[in-house]
Structures are given as structure tokens and as C-alpha cells.
Amino acid sequence: MVQIWAGTDIGKTHHHCVVLNAEGERLLSRRVLNDEPELLALLADVLALDEDVVWAVDVADGMAALWISVLLNHGQHLVYIPGLAVNRASAGYRGMGKTDAKDATVIADQARMRRDLTVLRSDDEQAIELRVLTSRRADLNADRTRRINRLRGQLTSIFPALERVLDLTNVGPVILLTGYQTPAALRRTGGKRLVTWLRNRSVRSPEALTEAALEAAESQHTAVPGEKITAQVIHTLAKEVMSLNEQISEIDKLIAVRLRDHELAEVISSMPGIGPLLAAEFLAATAGDMSRYGTADRLASLAGVAPVPRDSGNISGNLHRPRRYHRGLQRVFYTSALISIRSCDDSRRFYERKRAEGKRHTQAVLALARRRVNVLWALIRDGQCYQPNRSRPLEWCIDGHSVISF
User: Fold this and answer.
1) How many Å apart are CA 248 and CA 258, to the nearest integer?
2) In whole angstroms, how large is the CA radius of gyration of the chain?
3) Cα separation of 202 and 171, whole Å?
4) Which long-range contacts (CB under 8 A, 24 or more apart) does 44-48 make?
5) For 198-210, how does the pLDDT look when each residue is reduced to its tens digit (9 = 90+)?
6) Does the pTM of the predicted model rise above 0.90?
7) How far, in Å, are 6, 48, 104, 186 from residue 45 at the CA level?
8) d(CA 219, CA 159)
9) pLDDT band at 394 (very low <50, low <70, confident <90, very high)
10) For 226, 255, 336, 397, which has the most beta carbons within 10 A of its beta carbon?
């Protein structure tokens, strides 16, 4: 039986740990350096108080990774309470001030009173690698988006006609901007030389791109002040976008290799609409361990595709999206649902049925995403790949109930 509860307020360089007993009395309060010898000393001191201890943290990764690894490697029971929940719970405790010691006390006390907190477990190496790679890819993609937006802004300031006809999410237009940024430069080059220049750089459909660029150049003969230096900035930004494209391509190859080695890769990728990247993001978020969530309903709630009630008084049936959910998981299920509408007959029929019931596009896609949670849950549970609906709806049994796939 648990005798003491240890809450840790996580910080970048230092953590603060507070230990409470069953009556809520403070047994220990200490600020420790985020360094292994200091953390091991804290662990030993807390275990000296009592070996039956529940540890709680308010951060589950990043700067808490070393402390979490130390606790899990020593077989400790560790739970996670989100920082937002700690902040809201603090309002119910005496005192208006905020200190690390008070936050650690709230964390420990919440762990003492609550039985619904998430238990943290060790993930396998493959899931951790996929989490690192997908996070890195998300960072690179965000950097690319920022640079493309800056590129659009700079190009609009000197050559708006060209900005309108270029889709800078494609490689070809970005390559064009590494060599030509002004109307005069495009007109001097001419169509034949520009087509050859683009073809030598392996641009798809160089003729169509050349025609659009020259048409834009012929529509503008005014040189805007600052055009020369702006053109240099556009050249630099275009080069940076090209470099980020190459880095993202390399990350995608690494993700595909790591995903191929995972035991659930074939099962998850068999779901319509889930490719290597979405499958990797799903495994990064869940580690493929469905026992952590208990039921498909809990997984759907975590993914933000299951509505929650907000009833009060005479108002009932008031359903809304949950305020707390895993945005990465929601992206997996919502994006794959969108893709599956175009690539899977079962998904398209389900979507069209929901639309016929009067649901808006977003509502119908969310309903499809919710149904796909049940199907993917059953596939992982049974270790089976998805089989398209042939003559009748595919059925899976979840918690003793028959669940139609789509």
C-alpha cells in the first residue's frame, strides 16, 4: 500500500521535489540540480523515508527526460499530471503566491488524491527514435513554411504578378527563384534559354513554368525601389527552402527505415489513408501499446475525435470538442480520414452517409476519424491487416461489442 507521494516540479536546470504522507504532511522539500548524481541522491533519500512511493511529474518529456529515465530504470511507479491541471488546482490551495515548492506540493497532493492520472512507462527504442525523427521533421517543416511565407512577402513587394502564378510549395518555382527574381531578368533570358536552364535542373514541366513566368514578366515593366537588394534576399530564401526540402527528404527516408523495422508497421500501414509518416507519428504518440488506454473510447478521447458533453441545468446534449487532447494523434486520424475519403470506397460511403444526414464537412470527417479509431484499435489488438469491405461491412469485436468498420 502506498505510504508517501513525491511530486516534482520540473525545471530546465533544477527540479523541486516535495514528499507528502497519507495525511498530507510534508516530509521532504528539496531543490535538486538536473544532473544524475543529484537525482540519484534524491531518489535514495525519498526511498529511505518509505519504499512504497508514488512519484508524480508535471512534464513528461524534454527537460524531464533524465529524471523520468532514472525513476523508471529503478522500477518506480510514476504518474503524469499536466501543467495546466497543476495550475488550475493551485487556485484551491492556500496562498496567492507561486513558487516551485508550492507547485511540487500541489503535484504530490494531486497524486495522493487522484486515481485517474496517466501512468508513465518506458517506451521501446523504436518508438523513441520515431518520436525524435517525427519531431525533427515537424520542426523542419515549420521552418520551411516560415521561409516560404517570407519568400512570398519579398516577391510580392517587387514582382506581385510572378508571386500570383507560382506555387512555392512545389520545387520547380523555388528553383526558378534561385536564378531569376525580377521581370527584367526574365525578359532578358527569353523563353528558350529559360526552358533549357530549368530542364538542366530537373524541373518538371519547364515549358509551362516558363510560359507563366514570362507572361508575368511582360505584365510588369516598372522597377520597384529596392528591387536589387530584395532580389538578393529572395535568392537567399529560395536557397534556404531548397536546403530544407533536402533535409526533410532525408528525414523521410530515415523514418521509413525505422518504421519498417517495427512489428506493427504492416498492420498500421494497411489502414487506408495512413502512409509511412502518419504511421510513424501514431507510433511516436502511442508506442503501439493499446493497453495504456484501456479502451478505444479512451484513445479516441485522447485524439480529440470524441465529443464531450457540456451540460448544465436544463441544457443537455451539448457536445463539444475536448479542451485537452493530443494534437499529434488528432492530426493522424483527421488527416488519414481526409485521405481515405479519396482512396477508400468504405470511407467514402461512410462520409457520404454522414453528409446525407445533414452533417457539415468537418463533422463528417471527424465522425469518420472516430470510427477509424475503433478499426485501428481492433487491427492492432488482433494483429491483422485491414481488409477492404467486399460484400458486407467488416466487423470487429471491441469489449464484447460488434463494431462495424465503416
Assistant:
1) 15
2) 27
3) 10
4) 46/4, 46/6, 46/17, 46/19
5) 999 999 999 999 9
6) no
7) 11, 5, 17, 73
8) 10
9) very low
10) 336
